[in-house]
Structure formats: C-alpha cells, structure tokens
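Recall the central idea of this unit: under ordinary conditions, the amino acid sequence of a chain determines the structure it adopts. In this exercise we apply that idea directly, starting from the sequence alone.
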Amino acid sequence: MVTVQAYYQHIKTRQQQALQEDLLVQEALRIRRSQKRLGARKLLVMMSPFMAAHGIAIGRDAFQIRKYDD
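Accordingly, the structure predicted from this sequence is:
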C-alpha cells in the first residue's frame, strides 16, 4: 500500500525528471545545430556547465542510453 504522501512525491519527482530531460534535449539540439557530428561524450562535456547551472546530474552511461547523441 502506498501512502498519499508517497504518491504525490512520486508524481512530483516524475515531473521534475521530465522537465530536466526536456531541458537536456533542447540544449543538445542547440549544440548539435553547429556541430552535427559531435559524439555523446563530448556533448556531455560541453553540456556540463549548463547542467550544473540547472542542477541536473546525469552520468555518461545514462546520458548515452537516453539517446541525446542521435
């Protein structure tokens, strides 16, 4: 059984994750407009100041799995 607090906390967490993912996708697309053949690792390095400014923490493997490098 899930408490009401846990339910709403889960919803809030999912919304925050979706927002962060949207921010990452938009930033990746912005960088990719000028450097189309940039790999995922370098893209992650280039996005690290953006991610730090927005409080987003994601590892290399999770970044590649989410296909920001497409």
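The first helix runs from residue 4 to 34.
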